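Thread title: Can someone regenerate the structure for this chain?

I was given the following input by a collaborator and told the matching structure tokens would be attached. They weren't. Posting the sequence so someone can regenerate them.
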Amino acid sequence: MKAALLVLGMITVVTAAPARATLVLNDTSFTGWNTGSYKTGTANPATVAISPDGSTLMVTTNSLGGASLGYGYDPSTQYSGVPLDGASYSISASVLSGASAFGNGQQFHFILEQNGSVYDYFVGVTGVRRPDYVDVTFTGTFSAGGFTLISGTGPASPDLSGTTAYEIGFGGENAGSSTITESFQDITGSITPAVVPEPANLSLLGCGLLGLIFASRSRSNNQLAKGHLES
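Best answer:
Regenerated them for you:
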């Protein structure tokens, strides 16, 4: 009996936090993407262009007097069932800076479209990358409070539970800067949802832990009784 309880405890510890599917990103063509821009203050609207062969997303910003963001997202692919709140991401992009780029280059943003509204999330800076394309990787963890509504009339934060479908894209932004152009190719990576124990498994985990405690106490009591008998 004690052995069975011990095994139950070990099994429930292992199964208490089931893994969720990882979302894989592989954007090597931007053909058919929707594009847009967002600005604050007196900055100029960003311009976004897609190369004729679809391989390159080019964002040009002139953000003197405010902030300027240019972006694109893929309307042909919707995701659901993959919660983003607390999810960890690793996103890589091949980046080429234009001749006028300087300093930290552009900010790189994750774009999420949901029910007609567009949200952006800052993930890092590109730096100045030239004369050739350079792979830049951004890692971190999504949080609902980090998303900003930049287009549409939706709520201030998107639904990140995975129950409401969303579309994904990317963008470049600058603030208080003269003209900078960045070109992006081969955006790849993964988004791994946070592991959250399910209620049923939490109950099993509790039972398993009680089993472990019971087995441990029974073993201690047996050893104590044996000691008394020997004495």
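The first strand starts at residue 23 and ends at 27.
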